[in-house]
Structures are given as structure tokens and as C-alpha cells.
């Protein structure tokens, strides 16, 4: 809030008279916050990123910091691991959430909970956060999908939503969108004839056996055909980028995925997930971690810097999330086990105030001492930034009520 002399005397007088207009104003402030994130780029570090070797380092406790050393960053008072020197220069854009905790300690369950805010149930599949954004913020006039997953194979994420709200999977950023052009042995006339025949068969089938899943499949197929003939396909070809950007992001799958994510966000895709795999370091963590960290550091830092330089960071929320953290103690095999009790995630752009660290963990890295943040809270913050109504209730086909982040509460303090 900005204060002038008139405000100062008004608030001071109010306090002397027994009420506080300043407190009232601050309580109302969340309703006035701008939800700036038109796009979300969600970096998923799969396997459990060690907070103690990345963004939640305990610099004063060498016993648990292992081979990680703390370095200063561009944000006053914030130090991170020396394995992330490029990100250290971008921390003035970043809000660290050091007090994350989860109730899931296994990979599959933790990953599901991280993406949906709900624990797995055999009776239902919940929509991922990207599907919620796709459903309520997607533009049906666009040929590009609203939800894209990079370094994914066949993951939809739509849950009980219609399939059209699921993710378009891109197996490898450097390969672009595969199988998106007509086969060389099928000319346009033959292709159109086959589409007409398929349409006729679908209509005949629908008259006899109308079913929501059939309609969803037909709609998805129609969207795919429409995309095949669109100039928007060029956005998937990162080879169109200048060499300086290809080099800046890094010649590896993750870096190229971040570059493709920026291109997609620039083209209006609402939710893009970029996955970085294989962070489950139970043994010999410092054998693989430095190389993986270097790739994550380069790609993520380049993404934030590039978005900032293009004037896109304020309208694009960058998220780094992982399913849980790693143990403060190194194992006999010099690795770290699963640790759901306290770990670190981060947010940048999209209306978030950078250069801050939220939450406090004990000196030994074991317990959260201040501002515990649950996975639903974290996801509610992302949803709020993206302009979703976190209290809006959606009913599943079975008649059960759900909200975008379960019972999570947005962290308004970060905006």
C-alpha cells in the first residue's frame, strides 16, 4: 500500500479513537489483489528434489548440507545452493515457499496429490490443476490446446472432466508435435473423403447410442484435425528459434522443454507443464545431482530471465514443484530418503512479489516452525493467480462436489 500524509493522519486518528482503518484495509486487501497470470508454466521436478541441496539449504548446518554450499542471491537475505548459480541471479523474481509439507510419502501417490490436491481414490480420478485452467480459462476459438505437457507420453490429466480439457503430450521438445501432418501416401482428397466417412459413421452411431465419451472423443479428433491444418503448428518447432536462445536454455531435454514452454505461453497456451525426471537420489546423491542441477538451473533461470526481458513475466506464473523433499540425514549410501514433512517449492511472476522467502524450518531441517503450507494451499495459490475461483464447486458425473484445490487457501501474502 502507498501512504500519503492524509492517509497517515487518518489511520493515526482512527487508532487513537479505538478502531483501525489500516487493519480493516489490510484484511480486505486479498479481494483487491490483481490476478495477473494469464499463463502458467509448471515445472515438475519428479522424484523428490532435495531442498537442502537446492533452494532450502541450511547454510549454517554443515552436518546436513552435505556437499552443498550456500551462495548469495539477487534477493537480499536469501541464499541458495551453489549448484544453482544462474537461479541465484533470478531470485529477486522468486518467492520461495520453504515450509511445504505433504501427507504423501510415495512417488505415485505424492505425484497425484501434487497435481490434483486430492489423495488417490479407486472410485474416481481427479482433474489435474492444468485441466481446471483448461476448462475455465481456455479459449475455444484457439486451434492450440489450452493444456500441454512436455516430456510426457500419454498423460491426459482430465480426470472426471471431459477429455478435451486434458493435456496434449509432447514426448520431446526437440521433436515437436509428432504425427501432426498428413501421411505422405495420402493426398488431401483421400484424406477429406476419409474424414467425411468417419463423420457419417459417428453420426449414425450417436443416433443409436449417444454417449458422452463418444462425443468427447469426436470433439478431440476434430480439434486435432483442425490443428493439423493450422499455422500454429510452427510454435512447436523450437528450431525456428535463434541460436542464442537455444544456447541460453541448454542443449538438453529439460532446457529445450522450457524454451518450448515459453513459445507456447507466447502463443496463448494457458497451462504448460515441463517435467524434469529422475531426482530420486537414495544413494550417491552427489554423483548425479550436480549434472541434473546444472540443467535445471540453466533452463529455469533462462525461462524466468527470458520472460522478464519480453515483458511476459508479470502475466506468466512460473512454478517449480516436487512431490516431497529429501531427508536431512545422508544415508549410509550417501543419499537422501523421502521427506514429506518439510521441503521447498517456488513461484515467480504472475503477480507474485519476488525476492521473498515464506515459512521457516528448524535449524536441523526436520520441522516446520512457521507458516506451514500444504499442497492444496500451494495449488490454491496457483489457481488464484490464474484467476480461478477457488471456492467454485464442480459436481462430478457421480454427483460428488469438488473444488480446484480441495480445501486449500491461497497465500495472499505472496502477492
Morphology: globular
Domains counted in the coordinates: how many?
1
Cα gyration radius (Å): 23 Å
Q: List the secondary-structure elements in sequence, H or E.
A: HHEHEEHEHHEEHHHHEHEEEEEEEEHEE
Oligomer: single chain
Characterize the main sheet.
9 strands, mixed
Organism: Lentisphaera profundi
Protein name: DUF1501 domain-containing protein
Pfam families: DUF1501
InterPro entries: Alkaline_phosphatase_core_sf, DUF1501
Secondary-structure map:
Blueprint: H1 5-16, H2 21-32, E1 39-45, H3 62-65, E2 70-72, E3 79-81, H4 85-88, E4 94-101, H5 107-116, H6 129-137, E5 147-150, E6 168-170, H7 188-208, H8 212-228, H9 243-249, H10 253-266, E7 271-276, H11 285-309, E8 316-322, E9 325-326, E10 338-339, E11 343-349, E12 356-358, E13 360-361, E14 368-370, E15 373-374, H12 375-385, E16 394-395, E17 401-402
Parallel strand pairs: 1-7, 1-8, 4-12, 4-15, 5-6, 5-7
Antiparallel strand pairs: 2-3, 4-11, 8-11, 9-10, 13-14, 16-17
Helix pairs in contact: 9-10, 10-11
Summarize the structure.
The protein has 415 residues and is of the alpha/beta class.
Amino acid at each position: 500500500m502507498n501512504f500519503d500524509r492524509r492517509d497517515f493522519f487518518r489511520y493515526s486518528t482512527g487508532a487513537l479513537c479505538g478502531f483501525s482503518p489500516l487493519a480493516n484495509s489490510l484484511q480486505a486487501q486479498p479481494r483487491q489483489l490483481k490476478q495477473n497470470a494469464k499463463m502458467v508454466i509448471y515445472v515438475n521436478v519428479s522424484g523428490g528434489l532435495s531442498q537442502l541441496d537446492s533452494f532450502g539449504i541450511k547454510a549454517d548446518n554443515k552436518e546436513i548440507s552435505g556437499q552443498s554450499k550456500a551462495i548469495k542471491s539477487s534477493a537480499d537475505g536469501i541464499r541458495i545452493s551453489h549448484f544453482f548459480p544462474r537461479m541465484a541471479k533470478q531470485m529477486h523474481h522468486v518467492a520461495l515457499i520453504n515450509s511445504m509439507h505433504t501427507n504423501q510419502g510415495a512417488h505415485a501417490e505424492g505425484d497425484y496429490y501434487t497435481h490434483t490436491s486430492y489423495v488417490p481414490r479407486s472410485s474416481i480420478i481427479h482433474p489435474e490443476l492444468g485441466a481446471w485452467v483448461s476448462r475455465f480459462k481456455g479459449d475455444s476459438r484457439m486451434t492450440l490446446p489450452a493444456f500441454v505437457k512436455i516430456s510426457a507420453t500419454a498423460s491426459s490429466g482430465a480426470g472426471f472432466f471431459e477429455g478435451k480439457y486434458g493435456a496434449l503430450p509432447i514426448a520431446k521438445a526437440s521433436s515437436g508435435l509428432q504425427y501432426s501432418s498428413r501421411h505422405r501416401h495420402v493426398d488431401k482428397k483421400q484424406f477429406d473423403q476419409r474424414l467425411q466417412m468417419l463423420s457419417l459413421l459417428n453420426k449414425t452411431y450417436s443416433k443409436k447410442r449417444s454417449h458422452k465419451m463418444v462425443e468427447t472423443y469426436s470433439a478431440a479428433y476434430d480439434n486435432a484435425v483442425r490443428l493439423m491444418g493450422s499455422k500454429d503448428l510452427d510454435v512447436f518447432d523450437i528450431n525456428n528459434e535463434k541460436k542464442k536462445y537455444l544456447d541460453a536454455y541448454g542443449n538438453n531435454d529439460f532446457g529445450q522443454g522450457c524454451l518450448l514452454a515459453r513459445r507456447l505461453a507466447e502463443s496463448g497456451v494457458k497451462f504448460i507443464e515441463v517435467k524434469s525426471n529422475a531426482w530420486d537420489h537414495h544413494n550417491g546423491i552427489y554423483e548425479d545431482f550436480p549434472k541434473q542441477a546444472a540443467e535445471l538451473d540453466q533452463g529455469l533461470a533462462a525461462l524466468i530471465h527470458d520472460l522478464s526481458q519480453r515483458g511476459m513475466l508479470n502475466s506468466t506464473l512460473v512454478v517449480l514443484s516436487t512431490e516431497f523433499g529429501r531427508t536431512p540425514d545422508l544415508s549410509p549410501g550417501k543419499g537422501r530418503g523421502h521427506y514429506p514433512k518439510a521441503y521447498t517449492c517456488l513461484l515467480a511472476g504472475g503477480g507474485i512479489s519476488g525476492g521473498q522467502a515464506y515459512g521457516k524450518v528448524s535449524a536441523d531441517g526436520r520441522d516446520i516452525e512457521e507458516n506451514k503450507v500444504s499442497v492444496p494451499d500451494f495449488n490454491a495459490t496457483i489457481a488464484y493467480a490464474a484467476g480461478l475461483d477457488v471456492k467454485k464447486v464442480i459436481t462430478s458425473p457421480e454427483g460428488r462436489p469438488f473444488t480446484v484445490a480441495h480445501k486449500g487457501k491461497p497465500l495472499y501474502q505472496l502477492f
